[in-house]
Amino acid sequence: MANNIQFSIAVHILAGLACGCDQEGVTSGRLAQSVNTSPSFVRRTLSKLSKAGLVETTTGKTGACWLAKNAKNISLLDVYKAVDAPKAFAIHSYSEQKECFVSCHIKTALEKALAKTQKAMEASLAEISLAQIVSDVKKK
Amino acid sequence: MANNIQFSIAVHILAGLACGCDQEGVTSGRLAQSVNTSPSFVRRTLSKLSKAGLVETTTGKTGACWLAKNAKNISLLDVYKAVDAPKAFAIHSYSEQKECFVSCHIKTALEKALAKTQKAMEASLAEISLAQIVSDVKKK
DNA sequence: TTATTTGTTACTAATTTAGTAACAATAAAG
DNA sequence: CTTTATTGTTACTAAATTAGTAACAAATAA
Fold first, then answer.
1. Residue B64 CB in 7 A reach of strand D
2. Given 3.40.50.1110, 3.40.50.300, 1.10.10.10, 3.50.50.60, which CATH number is that of B5-88+128-139?
3. Of A20, A33, A10, which Cα lies nearest the Cα of A138?
4. Which terminus, N or C, of chain A has the lesser number of Cβ atoms within 10 Å?
């Protein structure tokens, strides 16, 4: 699968783990109930989070998942990177028209400009921790 | 149609207009050559840019398009808004599981957090002018 | 050995996005 | 007044992406 709402689901899952931590381990089935989808679906995202070192899991009969770090130390940027969410902007890939210098150079010019924007977005994500999300969830 | 590379194409079109300004008006057909697509496709984007006040057009036999403002005064944020490009993040819309407070409150918590990120991205776009893009295009 | 879970792959369905075609409205030019 | 060339818009089809499901091997506790 590719991305998009995957990021949002990943945050949901992590918030679920953060809140279920009193139970010392939660199953993909339980998370699936909270998200309202199938355990398979949850596990695919969970797998990415695990590879990124944000959650830990055990297999086997008493298999379960839990946060690998304190929620304070997990930023939304970590999550964004873990699920490999799409870039803020895509650049069209039409072939160049050689006689036209705009056509030939617009892409590199755009890439340069949009790299800044991407950085700005990521910097913003870096400043939001999972703990803040969890706090907001509990507040209301 | 919806979005995504539309933004990138819109910038290409505007850069084309900025560079063709010596000719005092460019047709959708000419722009289509530069972008390497059909005039129809160009016009649909052009239409949005026109409604947003970034370009001006005339119809009829000698119909053409040109920038409505100096390229210095057009920011990428103007373009982003004009083409109604998608938000940086979508939030999943699964129905809530009433017994689970994470499920019930995660979306508003996420909306709040992601609004900041969206703002950061837009602020970054606001600082990049079409003139800068054009300058980069001409440089190389 | 059985039950239950993760991790992974393969697959189908739905939605979104890309791209084309067609044509009315407009206006300049002959 | 007719012709020609353009914009603006809508409708449509095709392609690509994304969502979501199913199935099963590997793991491990009981």
1. yes
2. 1.10.10.10
3. A20
4. N
